[in-house]
Write a structure and sequence with these properties.
Elements lengths: L4 E2 L6 E6 L4 H15 L3 E8 L12 H19 L3 E7 L8 H14 L3 E5 L10 H17 L21 E5 L6 E4 L4 H9 L13 H13 L8 E8 L3
Parallel strand pairs: 1-7, 2-3, 2-5, 3-4, 5-6
Antiparallel strand pairs: 6-8, 7-8
Helix pairs in contact: 1-2, 1-5, 2-5, 3-4
């Protein structure tokens, strides 16, 4: 494993861009709970409706969309996230194309996050959902160079929407993490937020065996650091 350094900075604004309801809490739940508590303005950008996210043969896409939307709202409230932008793409059909790029560039320019979180598109150690890969690539492109340079999507620009340069990009689900964020004291918030996604994660609650497994992973991540629980990321700095 690469040398993993602790990231201590608390930004004023952050954005979490994720493919499906529950991805954000899986990847960043402890960090977002901590940052919201410290005063960071966090915006969620949910790319798809989660319309294919069920193993129940009797479930329909229309029904699961409504269920997962409500679950995501409840999970976000636990962490302190006040705004969720839903792009409404169909689950399983997310493409890294100009439309998605334009959507993300506009939102980055509008909300001006210092830090952005998303899926690592370069994960090689296991299966990676197509939506995760395509979204991760497009988020990276949207930060550099598209949201930064005024000649990309100039039709978006006005007195309020201006080019914006994010400072850093955090990938979760990475093979080679280089950054850890101390989430000690916020680990229970992560579990509580994930427990709201009942259609996806059955049997998770505070004190359950699933909670113990999740806490063990967070504890293992922090094993070489002076704190109890951590979340791992591959962080890259945005270019000038």
């Amino acid at each position: 494993m690469n040398k993993v350094k602790e990231f201590n900075f608390i930004p004023k604004k952050a954005m979490v861009i994720f493919a499906h309801p529950d991805d954000a809490e899986i990847g960043t739940g402890g960090t977002i709970a901590k940052w919201c508590n410290k005063g960071t303005e966090v915006v969620y950008v949910l790319a798809t409706t989660g319309s294919s996210g069920s193993n129940d043969p009797s479930m329909t896409s229309n029904k699961i969309v409504n269920i997962r939307s409500k679950e995501q709202d409840e999970a976000a409230k636990v962490l302190g996230v006040k705004e969720i932008i839903e792009l409404g793409y169909k689950d399983g059909e997310l493409e890294s194309n100009k439309q998605l790029l334009s959507d993300l560039v506009f939102l980055i320019r509008k909300f001006k996050p210092e830090s952005v979180f998303t899926h690592d598109p370069f994960r090689m150690s296991g299966f990676s959902h197509k939506d995760h890969r395509n979204l991760g690539i497009t988020v990276m492109d949207s930060i550099y160079p598209y949201s930064r340079d005024h000649l990309h999507f100039p039709e978006q620009l006005n007195e309020k929407i201006k080019p914006h340069k994010a400072k850093n990009l955090f990938f979760w689900g990475c093979d080679l993490p280089n950054t850890i964020i101390d989430v000690t004291g916020y680990e229970t918030k992560k579990i509580e937020s994930l427990s709201k996604h009942k259609s996806q994660i059955q049997g998770l609650s505070v004190g359950s065996s699933k909670e113990k497994g999740m806490l063990k992973r967070l504890h293992n991540y922090a094993s070489n650091h002076p704190f109890k629980y951590g979340e791992l990321f591959r962080m890259i700095e945005a270019r000038d």
